[in-house]
TrEMBL record, chain A:
One of its GO terms (molecular function) is transmembrane transporter activity. It is found in: Cell membrane. InterPro entries: ABC3_permease_C, MacB_PCD, Macrolide_Exporter_MacB. It holds the Pfam family FtsX. It comes from the Bacteria. Its main location: membrane. It is a multi-pass membrane protein. Belongs to the ABC-4 integral membrane protein family. It comes from Kribbella kalugense. This is Putative ABC transport system permease protein. The chain crosses the membrane at residues 20-42, 242-270, 291-316, 336-359, 412-431, 634-664, 685-714, 734-757. Residues 411-618 form the MacB-like periplasmic core domain. The keyword Membrane applies. One of its GO terms (cellular component) is plasma membrane.
From TrEMBL, chain B:
This is Putative ABC transport system ATP-binding protein. Pfam families: ABC_tran. One of its GO terms (molecular function) is ATP binding. GO terms for cellular component: membrane protein complex; plasma membrane.
Length: 774, 235
């Protein structure tokens, strides 16, 4: 084998361009694969991952302190796999200067432990009385009115606490934490215990676990529990909408990568046939020849793969961390199996795609090999070229158009790469557009300009005294009139939210009752109509699916003691399955004295929002501005991924063309030299070579665009269906003619960009050098 | 320069060799013996089967029928690997277009042939350098083929062919791509080699090359031997 290594090494060293192309294509492909698989793997269980990372509580229980002691609880908890607590717990009123709320406060000495390891993502943990750590999702939007680090809040009447940190608990074990000493001072009303069990995959197992840890406790000691299965069901909502989209993209990236790697590698081997013949004539055995070729492509492939794994991990980790930090799990990475699979799989794939041509090289008769490399088979090409020569095209263009026919196999592979590249770009652009349109519509981002909060309840006299939460000073009707009459207002919708239940279903619903300009708040009706009389509601697709209902059906909603029969008159575009929209006439049947708590306002163009809000607050200081809807980090992540993968696919496709042109011009340098020797200018040579690839790009565009559009048409609705959302058909019409033209142009640009550099290089080699070298 | 086969013994023995490429017949019942120390030139019109004959002798391709025995090895009994080993040790080939590996320096191109037989890289370079000196191209040893002149390239190719002291040196139009002066240098080189005992089989269109280097000229027409004459060499 002593002769094999220097030949492989020299081939790698001297064939810098091809080596580089293989290296870069493998690098980018591996990066794509790692990102796609990483997202795929992680997105299948971000909640579980985060939960595992934090050792989240599988059961969270509150006990009555008057009925059970801490010692009894600790003793009873021995059947659990892991326990945290007992912690003192109290529900306290809080005044942060914002709307009045209450907090579940827990006394905890440190954020670590065996269960519910908190992620203190900002500031630090509370270590002395007077300090408080808030439970906040790091991705929650921060707007005016949200508490900041170092600010003070007043809880339970008159206790001033300083916010020293923000932590996040996936288990949602509390709204805020203080030191145990501070908790004692606040007089805890209940005791919190956090459990993990050996078996907790199902509700039945959890119940068994719960029975174990409460056995022997006084009756009535257990006040309430929260199961992680319920949290998980809730958390799955948004990500599940996007996981299918990510999966499709991951697989698409994988397929394109495979094709292009195979193309580049077999191109390199095919180009080496003459070289193979020489090696054989020298006495290399067939197997040695094969090893030389595998080695030649393996060196850059292994280096590219290693680099791609590193790059893919960096990208995927940053995407994943951003995507899933709302589970409080920072530093969620690519699972190790993805790295291992990529490190073993990609070089194996490269070797496999090289193996077929390498085997062909192996079995090639040496006598044929020596003559095969230099002259492309021209039988088929001649007819086409003669025909092209007879057309009125400039000779350099018609010669260029004939070039792809000289190597039909290579041309087909290059074309396939361009087609798949254009298909992916088309699909990606469409996917991105559909997703953004959908998400913007579904989350009503930017639909209203200002949202004002008017206090929760309040038909009686507003609460008085220090520390009382600010509430609207005026009546509901006065507030609405104020908002409408303040200069700049264009529309005002008032709403009240009432927790209700649907008879026969176990889940809680939030019903928003609207009056005023509710058609302006951004909901889009996709079936049926808006409510226009009492006893009517509008719901989401997910709601209908989860309850097996359809527009036109009648259901009964309950709130405390009242129940009301309502008809589903329409379906609106939004994601939530537990949110129901209705009107003020219907609210009158449920809670006739309720005032509106939220006012959603749109303003005329050019209105300054701050001026508007100040003008309103000058008349009613109790009206507070609250955060509007936020797009959700997932769309950003998906779009970033789509853009990234699209750019990579475009680059890789261009490299595929680049490689083909390098091979073609290298093979044909004698022809090119001859053409120049008979008077073709370098510019004409460049035109000729670029033309050959531009034709390919145009064909690639024409084939790839419909494929991408079909993929988009088939995949997006199917995936939306799986995610229990409906994407109305207008959101699928994302390909205007101008975009299609742009996409065809993309195919041509990919091809021309890949072809230009080697074409120019070929055009500018001196004739003497070319002819001398053969 | 050959090892155990002395002058007068048959180094190459072709018996009724026929080679077909699909419909066309490249060699049509060729029988031929070449003895150690001989210099045989094959001449004939284009397409008459001269290159095919060299491929048969070098074991680059197999005859459709008939047998080829070179230096005692019946090539028909060898598998692909056996043929490769045979080429390494028994055959030296030079081509019209040199067929050097562009990726390797001149010296490494030559050393490679010895490395194939298991010689260490340093030993192989040493022997290659000796040959370079003998062939008068030692100054060009670190140059890559694309920077060499045609004559220099052909001398590198000759050096590579001689590396393993082949039983027979096969040359297909060795001067075909060279100008008169470079061609003459290569001719002289081949003649010198033959005079120190190297068996030579060369294909050429060049009457002068044939008469100057060869002791026997074989005429090919349509894949058959059409005539044969022995020559008094002119130099
Ligand atoms: N690999 C091949 N496939 C098909 N036919 C071949 C092949 N190699 C040679 N031939 C045919 O065999 C015949 C003899 O070819 P060969 O190359 O031996 O001729 P030649 O005498 O060397 O000609 P030239 O003087 O032009 O080099 C020709 O008709 C040629 O077309
Ligand atoms: Mg020939």
């Amino acid at each position: 084998m002593s002769a094999v290594w220097p030949v492989s090494r020299a081939a790698v060293r001297r064939r810098r361009i091809q080596t580089l192309v293989i290296g870069v294509v493998v690098l980018l492909s591996t990066t794509m694969i790692v990102v796609a698989l990483g997202l795929l793997a992680a997105s299948s269980g971000p909640f579980d991952q985060a939960y595992t990372k934090q050792h989240g509580a599988q059961l969270l229980a509150s006990y009555d302190r008057t009925k059970v002691t801490d010692a009894q609880l600790t003793d009873a908890a021995r059947s659990a796999a892991a326990v945290a607590g007992p912690f003192g717990q109290a529900t306290v009123d809080v005044n942060t200067g914002g709307p009045a709320t209450s907090l579940v406060l827990v006394g905890r000495a440190d954020p670590a432990g065996t269960v519910d390891r908190l992620n203190v993502w900002k500031g630090r943990w509370a270590d002395k009385p007077g300090e408080i750590v808030l439970n906040r999702n790091p991705t929650d939007s921060t707007g005016r009115g949200t508490p900041t680090l170092g600010s003070a809040m007043t809880v339970a009447g008159n206790n001033k606490l300083t916010i020293v940190g923000f932590a996040y608990s996936v288990s949602q074990s509390a709204d805020a934490w203080v030191t145990p000493a501070q908790m004692t001072a606040l007089k805890p009303t209940s005791t919190q215990m956090l459990y993990r069990f050996a078996h907790a995959a199902t509700n039945a197992e959890l119940t068994a676990g719960q029975n174990g840890v409460t056995a022997g406790l006084p009756s009535g000691a257990l006040i309430g529990t929260q199961s992680y299965l319920a949290l998980r069901a809730a958390a799955a909502g948004e990500p599940n909408t996007f996981v299918p989209f990510l999966m499709v993209f991951g697989w698409l990236g994988l397929a394109v990568a495979v094709l292009i790697v195979a193309n580049v590698v077999s191109g390199a081997v095919v180009a080496g046939f003459k070289h193979i013949g020489v090696l054989k004539a020298l006495g290399f055995t067939p197997s040695q020849v094969m090893v030389v070729y595998l080695g030649m492509v393996s060196i850059p492939a292994v280096v590219g793969c290693a680099g791609g794994v590193v790059l893919g991990n960096i990208l995927a980790t940053s995407l994943l961390t951003r995507a899933f930090e709302n589970y409080g799990a920072e530093g969620i990475g690519v699972p190790i199996w993805v790295d291992v699979a990529a490190l073993l799989g990609v070089p194996a794939l490269v070797a496999l795609s090289a193996l077929v041509p390498a085997l062909r090289a192996r079995s090639l008769s040496a006598a044929q090999a020596i003559s095969a490399g230099s002259a492309p088979q021209s039988g088929r090409a001649l007819g086409v070229q003669r025909w092209l020569g007879g057309t009125r095209l400039p000779r350099s263009v018609s010669l260029g158009l004939g070039l792809p026919f000289a190597r039909p196999g290579r041309t087909a592979l290059t074309l396939a790469a361009v087609v798949l590249g254009v298909t992916s770009v088309t699909f990606a652009v469409g996917l991105g557009k559909s997703l953004t349109t959908y998400q913007t519509a579904a989350s009503r981002v930017g639909a209203v300009d200002v949202t004002m909060f008017g206090g929760l309840k309040g038909n009686g006299p507003p609460p008085q005294g220090e520390g009382a939460p600010p509430v609207a000073k005026l009546t509901d009707a006065q507030d609405e009139a104020l908002l409408r009459s303040t200069p700049g207002a264009s529309s005002v919708a008032a709403s009240a939210e009432v927790p209700m239940r649907m008879v026969g279903a176990s889940t809680d619903l939030r019903v928003s009752f609207y009056r005023g300009d509710f058609q302006q708040v951004g909901f889009r009706i996709i079936e049926g109509k808006w409510f226009d009389g009492p006893g009517q509601v509008v719901v989401s697709e997910r709601f209908l699916r989860q309850h097996g209902l359809a527009v036109g059906d009648t259901v009964v909603l309950q709130a405390q003691d009242k129940s009301v029969r309502v008809q589903i008159v329409g379906k609106a575009l939004y994601n939530s399955g537990d949110e129901v929209l209705s009107n003020w006439q219907t609210l009158a049947l449920v809670a006739p004295n309720q005032r509106a708590s939220i006012y959603e306002i749109t303003v005329k163009p050019g209105t300054d929002l701050d001026t508007y809000v100040s003008a309103v607050q000058a008349k009613d200081s109790g009206l507070l501005e609250t955060d509007g809807q936020d797009a959700g980090s997932f769309v950003t992540i998906v779009l970033a991924t789509v853009v990234l993968l699209t750019l990579m696919l475009g680059t890789v496709a261009a490299l595929g063309v680049f490689n083909t042109v390098v091979l073609n011009t290298r093979e044909r340098r004698r022809d090119l030299g001859m053409l120049k020797s008979i008077g073709m200018t370098p510019a004409q040579v460049t035109v000729m070579v670029v033309t050959s690839m531009v034709a390919l790009g145009a064909i690639g565009g024409l084939l790839g665009i419909p494929l991408g559009m079909i993929a988009h048409r088939v995949v997006v609705p199917a995936m939306a269906n799986g995610a229990q959302v409906e994407i109305p058909s207008f959101m699928l019409n994302v390909y205007p003619a101008s975009l299609l033209a742009l996409l065809i142009l993309a195919g041509i640009v990919i091809a021309a960009a890949g072809a230009y550099v080697p074409a120019r290089a070929a055009a500018h080699t001196t004739i003497a050098k070319v002819l001398h070298n053969e | 320069m050959t090892e155990d086969v002395g002058n007068g013994q048959a180094v190459v023995q072709l018996t009724a060799v026929r080679k077909e490429y699909g419909e066309s017949v490249a060699l049509d019942g060729v029988s031929l013996e070449i003895h150690a120390g001989e210099a045989v030139a094959v001449m004939g019109p284009s397409g008459s089967g001269k290159s095919t004959l060299l491929s048969m002798v070098a074991g680059l391709d197999r005859p459709t029928s008939g047998s080829v025995v070179v230096h005692g090895d019946d090539l028909g009994t060898l598998d692909e690997k056996g043929l490769a080993l045979f080429r390494r040790r028994r055959i030296g080939m030079i081509f019209q277009f040199f067929n050097l590996l562009d990726d390797l320096s001149a010296l490494d191109n030559v050393a490679l042939a010895a490395q194939l037989t298991g010689t260490s890289a340093s030993q192989a370079r040493k022997r290659a350098l000796e040959l370079f000196e003998e062939l008068g191209i030692a100054g060009r040893r670190n140059t890559y083929p694309s920077q060499l002149s045609g004559g220099e390239r052909q001398r590198v190719a000759v050096a590579r062919a001689l590396m393993n002291r082949p039983a027979i040196l096969l040359a297909d139009e060795p001067t075909g791509a060279l100008d008169t002066k470079a061609g003459e240098q290569v001719m002289d080189l081949l003649l010198d080699l033959n005079q120190i005992g190297q068996t030579l089989l060369l294909v050429t269109h060049d009457q002068q090359l044939a008469t100057r280097c060869a002791s026997r000229v074989i005429e090919f027409v349509d894949g058959q031997i059409a005539g044969e004459r022995s020559l008094e060499r002119t130099s």
